[in-house]
């Protein structure tokens, strides 16, 4: 019984060794995707099969705008203009993910995206502010943008933007008795609870190193055991 349990443990560990190694190695690419630029690197996906290839070939639509007589689309890979039923990349437009589009004065278009705020006019895009922005609103009298870290950005002309501090009313900002359990679990899972939002990569790297180490040492031990049995010696 003891021998069969050990065999089961050995073969199960071997079967999981390669998946664990892949999980550990890809952990680093996920944690450092911005620094490594993996979101901007395109790789052939034919070997993934037709469904995956089809999904990779078409960007996801995040926003739309009717402008200059044609629909404009904000997507995960920049802005497209629809002409004769075909979406073509906007010449001179930003290449990052665009989540909102807003028509501004002087026939310009404001764009909120993953890398900041953009203003498109005369065939080229100008970055107005950096940050992770999601939504635009306003008209000729002024504009506002909601960004993840910067908070609320405001502009009177659509060209010059600045952060606008917001003080929530006492009813909205009052202290609560605790936080949802789901948030605590997620913060433990990501490492935010221990290292903060900016230090999550430390936790991810530590877990990735442990996973890679366990996978490599497990495979190494299995190979040494096989060689020892084949040679009739001790492990």
Task: Characterise the protein shown here.
There is one protein chain. 17% of the residues are buried. It contains seven helices and twelve strands. A four-stranded antiparallel beta sheet has the order 1-2-3-4, with no helix packed on it. A four-stranded antiparallel beta sheet has the order 5-6-7-8, with no helix packed on it. The longest helix is centred in the last third of the chain and has 32 residues, at 200-231. Mean pLDDT is 80; it is low at 50-55. The chain has two domains: 2-41 and 174-231, no CATH class; 60-166. The protein is an alpha+beta fold and 235 residues long.
Strand order of the biggest β-sheet: 1-2-3-4
Counting H and I runs of at least 4 residues, what is the number of helices? 7
- Major β-sheet annotation: 4 strands, antiparallel
* Overall form: elongated
Proportion in helices:
25-40%
Radius of gyration: 26 Å
Mean pLDDT comes to 80
How far apart the termini lie comes to: 21 Å
Low-confidence stretches: 50-55
